[in-house]
Design a protein that fits this description.
Structural class: alpha+beta
Helix content: 25-40%
GO molecular function: ubiquitin protein ligase activity
Low-confidence stretches: 206-210
CATH class of the largest domain: Alpha Beta
Protein name: Zinc ion binding isoform 1
CATH architecture of the largest domain: Roll
Shape: globular
Number of domains: 3
Distance between the termini: 26 Å
GO biological process, one term: DNA repair
Radius of gyration: 24 Å
Number of helices: 7
CATH superfamily of the largest domain: Ubiquitin Conjugating Enzyme
Organism: Theobroma cacao (Cacao)
InterPro entries: Fancl, FANCL_C, FANCL_d2, FANCL_d3, FANCL_d3_sf, UBQ-conjugating_enzyme/RWD, Znf_RING/FYVE/PHD
C-alpha cells in the first residue's frame, strides 16, 4: 500500500468511529498486504499467499454499521467459506478464516496444476483458480472436458467428449468400460491414459521469449519513447518475480519507482530490497535502471 494512501486513511480515521475501526484493523493485518482501498473505506482487498505460493486476492465489502453487520467476502476460489462472525471479530480474523479455507483447497489446486503441467490444456494460462474444469486436447480435433471434484480431487472426474462423432464415440465407450480402473493413489495423467488406453498429447513447447508481456505496475508492454527514459526508452519488461507461482513481469524502472514509495523498502548501495507487489515474495532490483 502506498504511503500517501495510508496517510489518507489515517486522516479519515480522525472523523468517525467507523474509519478509526477500519484503519486500526488494516494495521493489524498489515499495510503491505493491502491491494486496494475504496474512497469511503467500505471496500478493500488484501493479497493473501497460500502455502504453495499461489497469490489470492480477497475482496471485502463493509457496511457502515461494521462490525455489527458482518462483511461480505469474494475471492477467486471455487466457493466461499461460511463466515464465522461476532461483534468482537476483526479483519485479521477474516483473513485467518480465508487462509484456513485456502488450505482446504490445496489438494484441489494441486490436481489442476498436475493437469496443466502434463497435458495439453486449452487456454491453461487463462484458467481461474475458481474453475474446476479443464478442456484437454486429445488429438484429431477432439477435446475432453474434465470436471474435478472439489472435495475429492483425486477421485474419478466427470468427463465430456467433444469433437468428431466416430472418434468421440469410441473414446466415450472406452471411458465407460474402463472407469472402474481409476485409482486415487495414482498420478492423474496416468489414470486418464490408463482408462482411455492411449497416450494424450503433452503441452506444446512455449516460446515465452516471443510473447509480449505487460508490466504488472504500469500495465504496458513497452516503456514510452522519450529522452528522459534513455537507455530504457521503448524497452519491454526486464524483471520477473522469481516465485514460480507468481512470475509477474515488470519494467525494472517501474519496480524501482514502486519500491521507493514503500516505507519497508531497504537499500544497499545501488540495490533496492523489498517485496513483489503481487505475491509479497522478496525482490531486489538495481536503481541504475531509473530515469536520468
Amino acid at each position: 500500500m502506498e504511503v500517501n494512501e495510508q496517510a489518507r486513511c489515517r486522516e479519515l480515521a480522525k472523523s468517525s468511529s467507523f474509519y478509526r475501526t477500519v484503519y486500526s484493523e488494516v494495521e493489524e493485518v498489515g499495510w503491505e498486504h493491502l491491494v486496494r482501498l475504496g474512497g469511503d473505506l467500505t471496500f478493500l482487498s488484501f493479497r493473501v499467499l497460500d502455502k504453495k505460493g499461489r497469490v489470492h486476492i480477497m475482496e471485502i465489502q463493509l457496511d457502515k454499521a461494521y462490525p455489527r453487520v458482518p462483511p461480505m467476502v469474494s475471492a477467486d476460489v471455487p466457493y466461499i467459506f461460511n463466515l464465522k462472525w461476532s461483534m468482537n471479530s476483526r479483519l485479521k480474523n477474516l483473513v485467518q478464516q480465508f487462509q484456513e479455507h485456502l488450505e482446504k483447497l490445496q489438494g484441489f489446486w494441486s490436481t489442476l496444476d498436475e493437469i496443466d503441467r502434463s497435458l495439453w490444456v486449452v487456454d491453461s494460462k487463462q484458467a481461474s483458480l475458481a474453475m474446476s474444469c479443464r478442456q484437454i486436447h486429445v488429438g484429431n480435433d477432439c477435446l475432453i472436458m474434465l470436471c474435478i471434484n472439489i472435495n475429492d480431487p483425486r477421485s474419478l472426474p466427470e468427463c465430456r467428449f467433444m469433437g468428431s462423432g466416430t472418434i468421440v464415440n469410441s473414446l466415450r465407450k472406452t471411458w465407460k468400460r474402463n472407469g472402474h480402473r481409476w485409482m486415487s493413489n495414482k498420478p492423474f495423467t496416468e489414470n486418464i491414459e490408463c482408462i482411455l488406453k492411449t497416450q494424450l498429447p503433452r503441452p506444446p513447447d512455449k516460446e515465452e521469449n516471443n510473447l509480449l508481456v505487460e508490466c504488472g505496475i504500469c500495465y504496458a508492454q513497452y516503456l514510452p519513447i522519450g529522452d528522459e527514459l534513455v537507455p530504457k526508452s521503448g524497452s519491454g519488461t526486464d524483471y520477473t518475480c522469481e516465485n514460480n507461482n507468481c512470475s509477474k513481469a515488470f519494467h525494472s524502472m517501474c519496480l524501482v519507482d514502486w519500491l521507493r514509495s514503500i516505507t519497508t523498502t531497504r537499500q544497499s548501495f545501488n540495490v533496492l530490497f523489498g517485496n513483489c507487489p503481487y505475491c509479497s515474495e522478496p525482490v531486489a532490483v538495481k536503481t541504475n535502471t531509473t530515469k536520468n
